């Protein structure tokens, strides 16, 4: 038999392992590392949610649900989205439960895209968007936001849509990973005014919607509901990343097509996780607020410390990331910088270029870490910058 890889789908073979996973593995291979790379809450899942999962197990609620998800969960999620963001989705026909937002993105793009289509993606961006698009024989078109404080400007959006007639999807995420930037209602309405002129779907990844610091999150689905597929879930809001529960919402005629891909990929999501998420959406309205307050304190400490070291960051109004520009006079190769920082100081920070166009010369720091870790990270970064600056040596 030939090398089995030669017989496999060449497009799959061409997919590269996510750089963030490789870097995390490198960090974990070194003992005593202060890890500021992890994009998940360091809080435990609230006890009342864990107890709901235990009850489901003890009650033998361990069989398949229908592919779109348990209807108690969908009703609870529908009510949660209504109470929090004023959204009105029919849980019987306009919502499905996905295996996290990651599967939600994958299934949605599979349902929407045809060969040769294009997907407009503001960058820097979460790392799965481009590969998922390529996998569907489509092309990602990146909109570099690094010159506009990492926000999409309406005129940029209009220009790209008018000059790229094959763009079928506008895929954006806010509050944003990796920058922490988010949008207010007026900014979203300005974008919607442009998008409404085109036959373009909008995939709005709002998984960090509960983690905003200066104003309440406003959902894009409320502004342009007929064109929008909303993706959300409990991973970040309720510290439930490992439970793998996402929610996809869209008009009936759209969500029914996405559900066809979803059921092929998953059959159904874990019933135990669904029971836990039902509890989160039913009795966990205040859970995110407690975590959000702590994140804000951590953000402020980290932001202040970085500014003292001349790292520039747009103030993140959401999520739990800072996207810091490496100061002039230091090595602007962010990958080399991050690897050398890990080697010399035992501090793990992700290179900004891992997140695509506009990320070069930046570093992403996650403050979903303890205050002690944040303070230790600032000491290590200060020592590294001081030692490098004084020696004038190339990293």
UniProtKB/TrEMBL annotation:
Instruction: List, separated by semicolons, the cofactors it needs.
Output: pyridoxal 5'-phosphate
A Pfam family this chain is assigned to: Aminotran_1_2
For the keyword Secreted, the answer is: no
Determine if Transferase is one of this entry's keywords. Answer: yes
Instruction: Cite a single GO MF annotation.
Output: transaminase activity
Q: What are the alphabetically sorted keywords of the record?
A: Aminotransferase, Pyridoxal phosphate, Transferase
Q: Where are the transmembrane segments?
A: none
Q: Where is the Aminotransferase class I/classII large domain?
A: 32-378
Q: What class of enzyme is it?
A: transferase
Q: Biological process GO terms, please?
A: amino acid metabolic process
Q: Identify the EC number(s).
A: 2.6.1.-
Known InterPro entries for this protein? Aminotransferase_I/II_large, AspAT/PAT-like, NHTrfase_class1_PyrdxlP-BS, PyrdxlP-dep_Trfase, PyrdxlP-dep_Trfase_major, PyrdxlP-dep_Trfase_small
Q: Which CDD domains match?
A: AAT_like
Family, according to the entry, reads as follows: Belongs to the class-I pyridoxal-phosphate-dependent aminotransferase family.
Q: Name the PANTHER family on file.
A: AMINOTRANSFERASE, ASPARTATE AMINOTRANSFERASE
Question: In its UniProt entry, what is this protein called?
Answer: Aminotransferase
**What organism is the protein native to?**
Companilactobacillus ginsenosidimutans
């Amino acid at each position: 038999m030939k090398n089995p890889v030669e017989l496999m789908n060449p497009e799959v073979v061409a997919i590269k392992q996510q750089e963030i996973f490789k870097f995390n593995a490198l960090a974990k291979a070194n003992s005593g590392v202060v890890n500021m790379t992890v994009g998940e809450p360091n809080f435990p899942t609230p006890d009342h949610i864990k107890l709901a999962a235990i009850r489901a197990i003890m009650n033998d609620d361990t069989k398949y649900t229908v592919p779109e998800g348990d209807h108690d969960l969908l009703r609870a999620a529908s009510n949660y989205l209504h109470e929090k963001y004023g959204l009105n989705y029919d849980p019987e026909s306009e919502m499905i439960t996905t295996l996290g937002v990651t599967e939600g993105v994958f299934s949605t793009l599979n349902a929407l895209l045809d060969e040769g289509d294009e997907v407009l993606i503001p960058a820097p961006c979460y790392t799965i968007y481009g590969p998922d698009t390529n996998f569907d024989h489509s092309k990602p078109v990146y909109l570099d936001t690094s010159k506009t404080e990492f926000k999409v400007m309406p005129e940029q959006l209009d220009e790209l849509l008018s000059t790229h007639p094959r763009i079928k999807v506008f895929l954006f995420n806010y509050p944003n990973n990796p920058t922490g930037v988010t949008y207010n209602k007026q900014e979203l309405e300005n974008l919607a005014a442009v998008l409404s002129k085109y036959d373009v779907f909008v995939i709005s990844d709002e998984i960090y919607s509960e983690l905003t610091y200066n104003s309440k999150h406003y959902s894009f689905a409320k502004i342009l509901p007929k064109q929008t597929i909303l993706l959300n879930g409990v991973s970040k809001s309720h510290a439930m990343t490992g439970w793998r529960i996402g929610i996809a919402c869209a008009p009936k005629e759209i969500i029914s097509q996405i559900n066809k891909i979803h059921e092929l990929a998953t059959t159904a999501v874990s019933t135990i996780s669904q029971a836990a998420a039902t509890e989160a959406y039913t009795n966990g309205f205040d859970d995110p607020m407690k975590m959000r307050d702590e994140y804000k304190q951590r953000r402020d400490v980290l932001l202040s410390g970085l500014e003292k070291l001349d790292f520039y960051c747009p103030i993140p109004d959401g999520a739990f990331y800072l996207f810091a520009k490496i100061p002039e006079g230091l090595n602007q190769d962010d990958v080399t910088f991050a690897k050398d920082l890990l080697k010399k100081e035992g501090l793990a920070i992700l290179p900004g270029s891992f997140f695509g166009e506009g990320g070069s010369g930046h570093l992403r720091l996650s403050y979903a870490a303890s205050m002690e870790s944040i303070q230790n990270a600032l000491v290590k970064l200060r020592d590294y910058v001081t030692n490098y600056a004084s020696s004038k040596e190339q990293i």
